[in-house]
Design a protein that fits this description.
Largest sheet: 4 strands, mixed
Distance between the termini: 40 Å
Number of helices: 11
Radius of gyration: 20 Å
Strand order of the largest sheet: 6-7-1-8
Structural class: alpha/beta
Order of helices and strands: HEHHEEEHEHHHEHEEHHEEEEH
Helix content: 25-40%
Length: 423
């Protein structure tokens, strides 16, 4: 797992502005999902969803640095697989409250290495080289390309050294670099609330090119570290009997719509890499279009594969049968939802409903708070269909789906987000 990597930031996804041979190796051995989304585009909440099987808001973990409820601490993903007979180990960034696992053994995992990309891959390789008498579940969780946050603030990047570069070596700006007409007005408000989080708001186009270059170089840096683990997989031929998943907790604005960081519901922020390598590299190289939520769907899927008992209340959908079929046309989820909360700035909340063709976004307040995009011809989200009368029925259909989802995942306390859905 990486941190803050958008789905298209891999050369296997067709991006010619960076080179990720090791992520590409995983994609060549597995199935790559193009429509995988995080539960909430912020590190702590997204990871809480992965390791508890719940949406962040319904368990009160929609902000960073929020402790896990006591009722869930003994039924995390690590605990479940350990109870199912697996040797469970974790290396790297945890950030389900604390940046590193808080003890030598915590949440069902042996703590191999703390929140530090330096030495992380080596600790994972050492674990793989142990003699195992039981099946194992290993998580290798890298911080980069999250160092783009420090780069944007003109600070030292903690886990990578960026070389000096010239402007003409930098990638050109994406087609959706301009802020689109009829974009949600509340996003400009949130951007103004924190210069520390959004120091890019007065960037020139050249500044944005440098930002994008730094972002891609950080991804290439972490790809080298991932390669150390993939090399060990090759040496031991673990492809034959091991399930391998590669993903990220959320994306980054990556200069699209002149947005940096996360939290907004732009495609670059919520659409994440998702590669599943099946034992025996079954269906190797397949590209899958089905919808996946890499938060709530992870626990049911790994329980499905491992034989662990899925706890009551976990409402994600296992993607085991889908991946094992390798059928790009097989019906799976009819929609997925990503929620957000600008807890670090102005407190705006919002939701995304992604259906096979369309993406609906609703923010709680502001002008153009309702957005609708056709993902087949406008993946860059430049034409908001919500302002056109002829799409009224589509809007209503997506509002109904969001209401259904909110009823299934109620927010604790007196606050009910259902009141924000337009009539």
């Amino acid at each position: 797992m990486t941190d803050q990597q958008t789905a298209t930031a891999m050369s296997c996804a067709g991006n010619v502005d960076l080179h990720t041979p090791n992520m590409d190796r995983l994609a060549a051995h597995g199935l790559r999902f193009t429509n995988a989304y995080c539960s909430l585009p912020l590190s702590g909440p997204s990871r809480a969803s992965m390791f508890t099987g719940h949406t962040p808001a319904e368990i009160g973990m929609a902000e960073n640095e929020t402790p896990m409820p006591d009722s869930l601490r003994s039924r995390t993903l690590g605990t479940l697989l350990k109870q199912a007979g697996y040797e469970t180990a974790y290396a790297g960034k945890w950030h389900v409250n604390t940046n590193s696992l808080p003890a030598a053994h915590a949440f069902g995992f042996e703590n191999l290495h703390g929140h530090n990309d330096n030495g992380l891959a080596e600790s994972a390789v050492s674990f793989l080289q142990r003699k195992h008498t039981r099946p194992f579940f290993l998580v290798a969780s890298f911080d980069n390309p999250h160092n783009i946050c420090e780069y944007a603030r003109c600070q030292n990047t903690p886990f990578a050294n960026l070389e000096e570069f010239q402007l003409d070596d930098c990638p050109n700006l994406p087609a959706n670099f301009p802020i689109a007409p009829y974009d949600a007005d509340v996003l400009s408000y949130e951007r103004e609330q924190s210069y520390r989080l959004y120091p890019t708001r007065h960037y020139t186009p050249d500044d944005w090119r440098c930002y994008l270059n730094a972002y891609y170089r950080l991804i290439e840096h972490v790809d080298v570290e991932i390669g150390k683990i993939v090399d060990e997989i090759e040496r031991q031929n673990l492809w034959k009997n091991t399930l391998i998943i590669f993903t990220s907790d959320h994306g980054d604005g990556a200069s699209a719509h002149q947005w940096n960081q996360k939290t907004a519901l732009y495609e670059e922020v919520v659409n994440v890499p998702f590669i599943v390598c099946l034992p025996g590299t079954k269906h190797a190289g397949t590209v899958m279009p089905q919808l996946i939520n890499n938060g709530v769907d992870l626990m049911p899927s790994l329980c499905d594969w491992s034989g662990a008992k899925l706890p009551d209340g976990a409402q994600g959908v296992s993607f085991r049968a889908l991946t094992e079929s390798g059928d790009t046309a097989l019906s799976h989820r009819s929609y997925v939802v990503t929620e957000t909360l600008f807890a670090q700035t102005g407190g705006t909340c919002g939701w995304m409903v992604r259906t096979p063709r369309y993406k609906y976004v609703l923010y709680e307040a502001g002008k153009n708070r309702e957005l609708l995009y056709d993902m087949t011809c406008d993946r860059g989200e430049m034409r908001n269909l919500a302002v056109e009368r002829r799409y009224t029925e589509l809007l209503k259909q997506h509002r109904v789906l969001l209401l259904e989802w909110m009823k299934q995942h109620p927010t604790p306390g007196p606050y009910s987000p259902m009141r924000f859905i337009p009539r």
